[in-house]
Amino acid sequence: MFTEDKNPRPGHDEDRWPGLCSAVAHDLMALAVLHHGELDTALVEDLRCTGFPNGLRLQLRSDQGQEAVSLVGESLQALPETVDKAALDELAADYADIYLTHALGASPCESVWIDEEGLAMQEPMFQVREYYRRHGLNVRDWRKRSDDHLVHQLQFLSLLFVRAGHEHLVEAARFMDEHLLRWLPAFAARVASRCATPFYAGLAMLSMAYADELRDLLAEILGESRPSAEEIEERMRPRVTAEVPPPAYVPGAGPTW
Question: What is the DSSP string of 219-242?
């Protein structure tokens, strides 16, 4: 979860798309909640009552998106009418395998996917932290849940859409290109292929499809085409400055003693 600095950097652009921005912010926060912790009876009932994920404000049109919507919806309806302990325990065990024990080898943190050695809390985490800092945000207890965790990234995007305005939508598109969409496809694919419950397989697929279609929508709104994966990797590649070797020693050319 975030804490907000006392003097956040304000945006100066007017909100030109209030309905869209509000809808997307709501959806992103709903997804963040589901990745944040285990399901309980109250949350399951709330999801059912709101018709999740058909109740998402941004309607997904891709085949992948519609497949994910169906899978999540059907998995919720397949649970007992009165959700019992056995059903919740099965979901909790799957949640733990994905997000807590990493038994599936599917870390919800970006660094593990981007770092060459697959280590947590590496350069991508600090790059993400810098995004947050520019918008007056800090992550609480980052040692327990690092800045580059999926939940934080979804929350950050939600906040950008709450603040809206052209400047914030440009920032959202850039953040998705440089961070969320560089690793979320691999995370979603691994979870969907290895997890034990249809709900978490569907949630992973749904999150990926939503992010991808949202990025397409941002491209349309901003009038700027999405950069290719190759262009993004080139942009993110560390710039190495060649060292200039010291001049060769020439007898008589320097000071003498």
Answer: HHHHT-PPPPHHHHHHHHSPPPPP
pTM (two decimals): 0.86
User: What is the full DSSP assignment across 150-176?
Assistant: HHHHHHHHHHHHHH-HHHHHHHHHHHI
Per the CB < 8 A criterion, the answer to whether 244 and 213 are in contact is: no
pLDDT over 50 at 257, yes or no: no
CATH number, span 17-230? 1.10.3480.10
Name residue 3's beta-bridge partners.
Answer: 138
The answer, yes or no, to whether residue 72 has pLDDT greater than 80, is: yes
Interatomic CA distance for residues 196 and 200, integer angstroms: 8
Rounded CA-CA distance 247/239 in Å is 24
Which residues are within 8 A (CB) of 29 and not within 5 positions of it... i.e. 6 or more apart? Answer: 154, 155, 158
d(CA 153, CA 233): 19
Give the count of beta carbons closer than 10 Å to the beta carbon of residue 90. 14
